[in-house]
Amino acid sequence: MHVAQPFQPNPRILEPYMYICMYVHAYVSIQKFNLFMVKNEKEMETKCDTKLLLVTANVGSLFEDPSRLQQIWLKEFLSKVSEIQPMFVGLHLQEVGGKTYEKSMEFVQEFIQSLCDSMTDYTFVRIYMDEDFKSAEHFTALGNMYFVHTDLQSLRVWNFLTHDWENNLNKTEDKHVYSGNIETIPTKDKSKFPQHFFPECKWSRKGFMRTRWEINGTAIDLVNIHLFHDASNLAACEEFPSVYCKTRRRALVHTLERFYLDDKNGTVPFFLFGDFNFRCDTEGVVKELTQNLTIHRVQSVKNENTKVHYRNITGNNVLTVGKKEFSHADHQLKFKEDWLKNFDRELEPLKDILIEYPITFVPSYPFEEDPEMPTDYMSTRCPSWCDRILMSPHVKDVLTEDWEQMNYQKRYNLIGEAVCMGDHKGYRFLPCAQLKFQSR
């Protein structure tokens, strides 16, 4: 197959994310949307469509309080599988094992076993758990779990070492759990972000893990990613984009660039699942909430507990902002209103190369981790849509429904809205994504 060489602008002239935008447009327009589906669009023949359930979930809380939270989480997830009856389930987890992985190993294995025991109709299983917490160079705490229904007609998985499809798959009973050190497993592409991407904090477990699947003739990449958090609300308030936002954008562009420059593996339509840690424009949110209020700064001797209070005319605190405090007088209602969506702006510079279903739900973070308070937000951060499912524009070409006519609320939403799923409200899901059947 002849592949034209993509246009490559001078990166010294353009900002990194602008370079990616231009590169992607040139590259995909030359390559069409998929090198591996068919050689000629005329060869395509629609036979049947494939229902997918694609999920992202930050599960750190589950392993820090497994006795109270893990069964609630599993029940909600499995009920959604039962309701939708998908042919292919992709579950993408961040912070597997929680903050103290070395103490939570047994709970991770119990979690995996519970899922496998419950998904009895899914006879082909691939699970990739990055558990080697002693490896500072590689550890990401990411987990990719895939369950394939026994009735799925055609399935292939990509080998990133041989740069080709693995064809000898036994869908009747083929279960592999890759855990511990998974660096040599060839059916995944995994990387931790370079240390110089962590200028404001220690080299933490942030990175991505990618798999590629051909499902009934349609090839897609499923990418799990975890980006950097905001270390301080006070620093995040200083400007937009904040220093943290810029670092997240840099890492995201780095990841996309790696995919589009990968000549050996080529490109296919991709989904990005993850805790992107996208935060609202905190500077803008504070301005919106503090109109006609007076500011009062309280500073400790060591400057470690500095807080800023915004008070009304009667002297009552309406908003308090500290390094790890963000508290409003009407905290549980104010941030569930539609006005906040106007400040969800981190994706704006990449809107030409990453698309997303419209958001019709409340912010996913930071929820209380108490089962008795399942819908309440903690007063630690400005509530934001940290957890997302993003897509390359050419994903539209492999979905059966017209993008403009989709029922977004049904397709892209929260699971477990009324129960405690941890500090992140469980996960997003794309419950009825119908992949077109492509004949080979």
Automatic annotation (TrEMBL):
The EC number(s) this enzyme carries: 3.1.3.56
Keyword set, alphabetical order: Hydrolase
Enzyme class: hydrolase
InterPro entries membership: Endo/exonu/phosph_ase_sf, INPP5A, IPPc
Domain Inositol polyphosphate-related phosphatase as annotated: residue spans: 48-439
Gene Ontology MF, one: inositol-polyphosphate 5-phosphatase activity
One annotated GO biological process: phosphatidylinositol dephosphorylation
Similarity-based family: Belongs to the inositol 1,4,5-trisphosphate 5-phosphatase type I family.
Protein name listed in UniProt: inositol-polyphosphate 5-phosphatase
Lineage: Eukaryota, Metazoa, Ecdysozoa, Arthropoda, Hexapoda
